[in-house]
Protein: Acetate--CoA ligase
Organism: Peredibacter starrii
Amino acid sequence: MTPENMYPVKSAVKTKSYLKGMEAYQEMYERSIKDPEGFWLEAAKNLDWFKFPEKAGQGDFKRVNHSWFMGGKLNVTYNCLDRHLAKRGNKSALIWAKDEPGQYQNITYQEVYENVCRLTNLLEAQGVKKGDRVCIYLPMIPELVYSVLACARLGAVHSVVFGGFSADSLKGRIIDAECKIVITANEGLRGGKKVPLKNITDDAIKDIDFVKTVLVVNRTSAQVNMVEGRDYNYEEEIKKYRPVAPCATVDAEDPLFILYTSGSTGKPKGVMHTSGGYLTYAAFTHRYIFDYHEDDVYFCTADVGWVTGHSYVVYGPLANGATSVLFESIPSYPDAGRYWQVIQDLKATIFYTAPTALRSLAQSGDEIVKKYDRSSLRILGTVGEPINPEIWKWYHDVVGESRCDIVDTWWQTETGGILITPIPGVTPTKPGSATLPFFGVQPLIVKPENGEEVKGNGVEGALCIKSSWPGQARTIYKDHARFVETYFTQYPGLYFTGDGCRRDEDGYYWITGRIDDVLNVSGHRLGTAEVESALMEHPEIAEAAVVGYPHDIKGVGIHAYVILYEHKESTKELVESIKDVVREKIGRFAAPDIIHITKGLPKTRSGKVMRRILRKIASHEYGGLGDTSTLSEPGVVDNLVEEHKKLK
Ligand code: ATP
Ligand code: MG
């Protein structure tokens, strides 16, 4: 793609944007790289510090001891609530979009503050101290946000576990983080279905002797088993405490939370983030990347169980005094119009979601989108996986009525905030590319074989980052050796992201998939995302996942798993027509050897395809599929194995 056919920024977004054009971006970017010290100290002024830091960044990737804003003292919750009360006390901090369609609850900054203070006092009375870990296993209800902020107010470390996880997964995370207290609900509600959170919690902690307290929010009217002296009803207890509470002063480098990665590639890692740098970065990126302004209604669909929910439902937006939508339901309940209905009802101006949701919604056609008024929207974001250009265009043309700027944001649990992204109103976009680095971020592409940097444009390799940014994770909880080993040993002196990447002729970045998934077919290196995007252009394909398997002649053969819009038997013509799109879009060498038509793919609970499992199946290694605890529907694996045995 040449600059002439990039998607230009939309004029309505441009008028509002903080930056006036690409020159302004370039200039600010250069300043952030030449003088990171000055740049980030300036950015840190967006927070209220009890003691302003003397230094910005310290440490390096050789010793893996990077730190930010040392000497600075603050409280994260103070920054998300207290400091807004005078000006925004009556502004909605949260709009809770309940599971039941059309039901909303606005919660002002003053109300969130009072709820958080009561809970802070309650947790303190239960013996929670600065540095203690608190497990939060809740659905997307306001108490989830209160819990997170009450921990931060006390200087305690939260570990939020997504409400879709099983007892075993919950147990593993409680043990790993050594949580003495669990905050949960009697039941969760998701898409009209009840999730027995308290029962699951009971199961998870039955053999753990260090969990002393379980706080139970009643989301439904269901009665649940309560253990005397251990389990407390949240509503009853909270009333006993005053709606004001002091906040702890923490060091910039004190831990804020532990969060486990989604487990797409293996056993989840307990990624640890600290306070001052993380919040500075979450707030700063939220403001620039979503072009956030005071009157925006900001709707990020992520669950707070994932990092996107931490940084871009809670911390970034609230630090900026925004109105953030807390979405309890699922995109398909009661039908595929749900997101669009929320946008219409709340007049959302910024919308941020994941490609996996967009792919499934696009399957329901355009009519259901058009049924709802989306004229309030200005900016559309995506995160989590490479977005196929087909779906990007659908998002742009249909959802955004060709009026909204799209921000395809690349980042990771470990990065704390967005690293590669367009700036709305500023960066011309290309469907499928996360475009350019954010301020202070220096991406580097290296040759996977030897770690040599590949300079210039029109290159491809493993994506690394050259130096630290404030939102970066500091360690893996209790396992710094694994942190060093996973991210800093392959290419000494660099942070290795694990992702493959191409920098095109215009210097734009394209994430090609996980580097471990790169296909080396007859000596050609191919990213899984590239082949999948080509497959998605076939009119009958709704979803595709591609992996390599040992092939006698080519070295690696390509096995493509595809889901069709309407289920059909595999015929020779269909298979050929599928291979043809890839031949046409990429080249003959990239045509899949096997087209495996199926109905379901193994996914993590955040909706990402687990290619690691698909690779095993394609290689006939049906046993030893590794850690499958984060799979959302374990049954699909058996089904794929059966289908695979039948393929010749
Ligand atoms: P695990 O590390 O346990 O395997 P995970 O990597 O899926 O799990 P996350 O931190 O939630 O856990 O996801 C980060 C990854 O998601 C990135 O490394 C990248 O592969 C992918 N990703 C996120 N955003 C984008 C994007 N905009 N474009 C392409 N890929 C993306
Ligand atoms: Mg990862």
Residues 109-125 form the longest helix (17 residues). The chain has a mean pLDDT of 96.
